[in-house]
Structure formats: structure tokens, C-alpha cells
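User: For my dataset I need records formatted as: sequence, then C-alpha cells, nothing else. Please produce one.
Assistant:
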Amino acid sequence: MNDRAIRLLELLSQAHEHGLDVSHYLPAVLNSFDTIPDNIFDNPLLTANLEVGLTISALKFARHASGGQVEPNKIGRSYDLSPPTVERSAALRQMAATDRPDNYVNSLHPTHPTYLALKAELSVDRPDETLRIPGGRSLNYRHTDPRVPLIRARMVRLGLLDSPKGRQSTRSSHDPDYFDKKLSKALETFQASKGLKRDGIVGRKTLAALNGQARKDLRELAKLNMERMRWLPRDLGQNHIIVNQAAYEARFVERGDTVHRMRVIIGKPHHPTPLFSDEMETVVFNPYWNVPRSIAGAEMIPRLMRDPGYLDRKGFEVIDRRGRKVRSRSVKWWNYTGETMPYDIRQPPGRRNALGELKFLFPNKHSIYMHDTPSRQLFNAQRRAFSHGCVRVQNPKKFAEIVLGWSARKVASLVATRTNRKVELQRKVPVHLTYFTLWPNSAASLVEYADVYERDKALTKALKTPAPRLR
């Protein structure tokens, strides 16, 4: 066996470092990577079988490294992704053309900093976050107890509390066993996310929830999210927007640096925001809201049957097929569904408009876009899955400044006209709607996020489903 083959075998034997199952890449003729039978090279047939098996395994590894082990669009209807999976023929040519096929195959892994952080998580021991928090008396604000550091570490890991590094001098910074007010507030948020009484007290039920969280295997979570990273384009764009639905956050990234981040609101669990990548092209100032027919049929027509004048009073416009406005009270709504009605319903620009003052378009088959909202209070919620699928943004004016390259005054002045106007971006900006339940926060520390759409469960099942020998 030559050096090229030995190096390839060594690479495949290290698949676990990327969260991949080593046994999936063991050539069929071998029982393990550790021992290669001495007589294998005395038998031309066995040698040929080993070479063929190694090629098949290396191709499989190359495809998994570059585009993932599963085809995401087969997991569910809300997936619309195009993983950059290397073609078999291209991989074969590249491996044959180099003395170091292992280097080529290894280069196919994602290089995004988040992927590298997740990869590093596989080799990290975090004893303070995997230990069970012992039982005992109930704990709350102003108590001192040796279990408090474990609770604080759990809150930091969940992104509910800042890391103690660099904090201002407080009693808890001198006495780590002290249960301070910040920890109490973080615990209340945790309790609310688990459907527990929001009292900031570590009682029996809250302790059980905390220990249930501790049992979650962070390495397994890292593996799931590394798989998701493989589905993204190799190049996210020099400047790009990435929305992590699980974190309810959007970031504008410029030349590798996050220059703006903001809270977002995503689709309800029964109206999940889909996963896809596209390009932002247009910012709409003072937009109309063209009511989707699904919403009209499910939410408006039932009400209009009882109260035909409802849309007139709320300031909505009903437009017939000739483009003429008609009064909603003149329509026999009971004759129609959302799909069959010969009308379009829209809400004119204004303070009560459901899209707020700004809309950000990246045309796609899902009719998903980003927009402002008059319901500002919803951004204060910890879990922000309230929309019908579109992404509501917390700071729309600042967002418009960044994507258009305009001053705050210019954006504000155009909003103030209350006139509907579309502005095309000089350069389209890639938009990636993603879902990561382990993701770096502003301090670059990996934080767990609740699996609001239960996509972790679906991906775990897909990864366990037997696949063909070579995908």
C-alpha cells in the first residue's frame, strides 16, 4: 500500500473529529482501521478489493464532508436548501491528480468559524455543566450555597446570563456561592421557557428541569449543528445576512465581522419559517400589506361572514379583478374561500400596517420576507415564534441604513413621507435563513437554544436512518 492510500486511511480513521461515524468510512475488506492483515498484499484480489473499498469510502467521506450526510429537503417541507456536495466525478479527478488526496478531501469541510467552534466542542470537557446539581433546600435571591456556581454555569451555557468574566465588582464576583439578582432574573427566564412558575426559586421542579438540561449531550448537539453547517453555501458572501431562527436573531456580517445584530420574530410552530438562502434586492418604505389568501381564508373570511364591514372600519382595501376598490360590506363573503374569492385584500401604509414602516425583499417561492411590525412589545419575549412565517426585525431603520448604505436621516426622512416607495439595493446581499440550536453569542461562546420547531429530533432520526452505501 502506498503513502497516498495510507494517508487516506488515516484521514478516514479521524472522521470522529468532525462529528462523523468512523465506521461509515471503513473499507469493506477491513475489520478496523487499527489492523491491516499482513497477508492482504500477498493476495492480488484482496489488494484490489482494498483499493476499490478505499476509493468508495473516500468518495463517501468527501460527499459527507462537503454537503452533509443527509439530504435536508427530504426531512420536511420547510427545508429548501442546496448543499454544496462535491460531485463524485470531480472528487475522483481531484484525488487522482494529487499526491495528497487526503489534503484535498480534508479541504472539503466547512471553514466557517462557527463550524470550527462546534468542532472544538467535540473535544472539550465541561464538568461544571454536566454534573447533576444536588438536591437540598430551595434556593433563591440572597442565598449562599455551594450549588450556586453550577446553576450559574448552566445559565451561561443557555445564553441566559453573561459570562462572569469582566463583570463589574459585585458580591457574587467575590463570593461565587452567592445567589445574586442577575442569576435570579436568568432563572425566571429559564422557568418561563419550561412552563414553570416564574418565581426565581430553585425548587424541586426547577431543579429537575435544570438537571434534565444538564443531561443533554452537548457533543451530540454539536454534531447536529455541524451537519447543518454543511448544508450552507461554502461562501456565505463577503457581506451577508444570517438569521438563526432558533436564537431569534439576525446578524449583518461585513467582511467576516458582525456589524449589527438584532432580535427577530419567526413563524409559529405550525407556521414554521422555512430554511433557504437567497439575495436581498429591495427595501420597501411604507409598504402595503397584501394579505395572503391563506390568512384571508383562515382568519378574515370567517369574521367577514359575521361582520361584512370589518375591513372598511379597519382601513383595509378590497380590490376586484379590474383593480377597482370596493367596500367590504358590499361583498357576499359567505360565497368564497381564500382561494376562490375574486378579490385581493390589502392594508395601506400607516402606523397600524402589519408590516410596519419597512419591508425587506429577497424574492423566493415561499413568499417570505423581513419586515417591521407595530407589535414592538413582542420583542421582549424570550421565545419569539409569533408570525405566519415571515421574519419581523427589531431595528428596521438601522437595518435599512446598513443594507442601503444610507444615513439615519435619509432613511427617517423617506419613512416620514408615509408614501409607498421601493428602493433597489445597488448590490444584492445574500440572506441565509438558518436554524442552529448550538450557536456562538456576541462573546463567541457557544450557547444552546430551545428547539422550537423540533428540528433536532427530526435530524437525529434522519441521521439514524440507514442510507445507501455510497450517497
